[in-house]
Known about the structure:
This protein is an alpha/beta fold. It is 39% helix and 15% strand. It catalyses: (S)-4-amino-5-oxopentanoate = 5-aminolevulinate.
Amino acid sequence: xxxxxxxxxxxxxxxxxxxxxxxxxxxxxxxxxxxxxxxxxxxxxxxxxxxxxxxxxxxxxxxxxxxxxxxxxxxxxxxxxxxxxxxxxxxxxxxxxxxxxxxxxxxxxxxxxxxxxxxxxxxxxxxxxxxxxxxxxxxxxxxxxxxxxxxxxxxxxxxxxxxxxxxxxxxxxxxxxxxxxxxxxxxxxxxxxxxxxxxxxxxxxxxxxxxxxxxxxxxxxxxxxxxxxxxxxxxxxxxxxxxxxxxxxxxxxxxxxxxxxxxxxxxxxxxxxxxxxxxxxxxxxxxxxxxxxxxxxxxxxxxxxxxxxxxxxxxxxxxxxxxxxxxxxxxxxxxxxxxxxxxxxxxxxxxxxxxxxxxxxxxxxxxxxxxxxxxxxxxxxxxxxxxxxxxxxxxxxxxxxxxxxxxxxxxxxxxxxxxxxxxxxxx
Length: 427
Ligand code: PLP
């Protein structure tokens, strides 16, 4: 028996489903999850010593590759001074200043430890600020697992065919209105009928939790105008797209200024750090200045801040996003060409360092489109690539991620393996 298999069997005895986050379980693709022993650059190694080119990158954070020497050194230096103090540190000031510099809509920012905390806190703040309860989200967008947001959410929940979690009280879900992504007419209708009840609209401006579906400029612009007109708070959930689709996130790419922004993943460089921030008049409503409570024992943890700061410095090097975007385009175009050669219906898309692959003729524009992807074909492709040493997300509903450590040779190697995988699918 492989070590992966043995570890999975042991894990299942003491950890529900053998994993600490559902999509890791290979539930929808079948087979045994790989237990990762170490990672370096664009590669990960499993418990059996098998090496893979990694296109998950810890689901987004590892934008400069794994164990980058600068990040490693920053964390080691911070670690030598102690792990956590529960008191303010200079590093928190530095990272707050860095975030505000890179994302100009963020005048003030608070650090938390996960994307879920960031979105949950941003919602509470928006409700406290407006004095309203209703929130609007979009089908297929995932914003972490706070109760109000587990309504028709994406990826992990879609993978398990259960868009609304058990355990969410109906009274809580009742305050969440779910609309179709990229549907301006429906949005206008919703604001016309209950716009003045809406505390916040939360959106992934580039959705990465129903595979990859970029928001259209007209949709995002309509969101900005309607929320402003009705006194609702516009929250961009850039936990995934932040520092990923552009240095200033999706808001810089689209030229839209949200009221609040949620960040995570890249700002922790692989350590548990996330943040929410935005307009100072809203942010000043949180405790200790205002009446909206929000707190965290490990918030602004010194090791996470050190990893985040080192990562934020690396992504500001000249040409970083041009190179990342070019590498990601090379990958998705190469995959699409390989599928075409084999006659397999396939589409792909990318925004900055994020990409999506779909086993259908057209890239999707909303959640309903995503469901046209041929998941049986995706699963066969996933396993063929895994066997060849390429680690894509184990779900047809997840976006993929490229890092600055993915050079042309690795991308071309990936495409060569895909050529064989597509040929086998076409047979
Ligand atoms: N928001 C978005 C857009 C995400 O993609 C995720 C996680 O994938 C979250 C929020 C939740 O972040 P976390 O898993 O750190 O709680």
